[in-house]
Amino acid sequence: MSDGDAKKTIKKVVLAYSGGLDTSIILKWLQTTYGAEVVTFTADLGQGEELGPAREKALRAGIKPENIFIDDLREEFVRDFVYPMFRANTVYEGQYLLGTSIARPLIAKRQIEIAHQVGADAVCHGATGKGNDQVRFELGYYALDPSIKIIAPWREWTFKGRDDLLKFARDHQITITKDKEGEAPFSVDANLLHSSSEGKVLEDPAKEAPPIVYQRTISPMEAPDKPTEISIGFKRGDAVSLNGKAMSPATLLAELNKYGHDNGIGRLDLVENRFVGMKSRGVYETPGGTILLQAHRAIESITLDRGAGHLKDELMPRYAELIYNGFWFAPEREMLQALIDKSQEMVEGTVRLKLYKGNVIVTGRESPASLYSSTLVTFEDDKGAYDQKDAAGFIRLNALRLRTLGQRKRTLK
User: Fold this and answer.
1) Contact yes or no for 282/272 (Cβ under 8 A)
2) What is the pLDDT of residue 182?
3) Can 187 be counted among the known catalytic residues?
4) Is residue 156 scored above 60 in pLDDT?
5) Residue of 74, 104, 110, 267 with catalytic role
6) Under CATH, what is the fold of the domain 188-304+346-366?
7) Angle, vertex CA 168, rays to CA 12 and CA 45, nearest 5
């Protein structure tokens, strides 16, 4: 089947649509290139932007009201994606809290649901052919609907650069704001967990990111000279309360974001390895997530058995890589999730923290399921709870192979 014939088979397509210039161009390009009916889907993941204009722009582009979907997914995002990831203390390459990566499977899931609801033949995303997001979106699409057709405009159209895109926009009466006429200083992706900035002024990893890059946090140097004290309550590994007040997942994370912002917490300047094979430099801000990670590790420290905790730490890099690369719906991620969730059954209690100039300082942790025994660890009289003489045999048994190896070395000298 020729490319033209393939295009003719697509009658209706669901577009992941932000209402920004790029997706507005994609919307019109779909109409002119495919002649297809376009359904727009805009996800509210807590990016902090007014989403009403997206509806108005879609209407002006000729989209039927019943074909415009603007969904508030904040609670689902935190409850079913962010929290499961944080149960594993997930970081990619030792630092990155995966704020963009974890949002993509939810967007893909909802997009496929809408495609089934409206009887669409295809789905479309605006990710470029150089990045990770194209992989994340499309792996999600195929996992949820193996027969779905996927349109990736950045891999298909013939535009050579930004000038071509702007000319297309002008030719089709697509509104171009003044700040879009020139080169944007960097690209931003944001949701309730984080903001991500890449490209343009950030492409040289030797140069410090300019202050305008940071949107979710104040500078640690400008943060208050007095620490902020908070407490976080956990149940089965998930944060359920803040300062003694029960909150929903999205509400709690939003409140932690405020604390993180005010105390300069969660900035990260990272050169990472993309799944597609290149290195990229990104500046991330994850204020609430950075606090949550430290608190979760603190409550695990008194409730999680050593063997279980160490196994989790060994498996975490693999789990993080799966999420980063887009394999959220893969069986191996689901298998790891089952193990992680099992480990969290007794991870409950309260953690107290001080937030100070970019630092998250744990000051206390307590749990009804604590494995910590002051009787065992005390330097004072433990009233017979632990016989220190037993340690001698323990050490000799563990040293047996080392002593044997040492004896061989001496013999062969």
Assistant:
1) yes
2) 54
3) yes
4) yes
5) 104
6) Argininosuccinate synthetase, chain A, domain 2 (3.90.1260)
7) 55
pLDDT at 180 exceeding the cut of 60 = no
Query: Residue 183, Cα to own-chain centre: how many angstroms?
Result: 27
- Looking at CATH, the fold of the domain delimited by 3-82+98-182 is given as Rossmann fold (3.40.50)
Q: Would residue 22 show up in a list of annotated catalytic residues for this protein?
A: yes
Task: Please name which of 205, 133, 200 lies closest in space to residue 124, comparing C-alpha atoms.
Answer: 133
CA atoms within 13 A on the CB side of 300: 24
Query: What residue spans in the chain does CATH classification 3.40.50.620 cover?
Result: 3-82+98-182
Catalytic residue among 71, 79, 145, 187: 187
pLDDT tens sequence across 234-250: 999 999 999 999 999 99
CA distance 181 to 265: 34
Name the more confident of 200 and 77.
77
Please give the Cα distance from 145 to 113 (Å, whole number). Answer: 10
pTM over 0.90: yes
Considering only the C-alpha atoms of the chain, give the largest distance between any 2 of them, rounded to a whole number of Å.
88
DSSP labels, 112-173 = HHHHHHHT-SEEE----TTSSHHHHHHHHHHHH-TT-EEE-HHHH----SHHHHHHHHHHTT
Whether 133 is a known active-site residue: answer yes
Helix (H, G, I), strand (E, B) or coil at 284: strand
Query: How far, in whole angstroms, is CA 351 from its chain's centroid?
Result: 23
Mean pLDDT of the residues in the chain = 93
Task: Round to whole Å and give the CA distance between 403 and 410.
Answer: 11
The active-site residue out of 133, 189, 238, 333 is 133
Ranges of CATH 3.90.1260.10 domains, the chain: 188-304+346-366
Q: Strands across the sheet with 122-124, in order?
A: 68-72, 37-44, 12-16, 122-124, 149-151
Phi-psi bin for 326: left (phi > 0), alpha (psi -120 to 50), beta?
Answer: left
* Per-residue CA distances from 92 to 135, 149, 316 (Å): 17, 31, 9
Catalytic option among 22, 262, 341, 382: 22
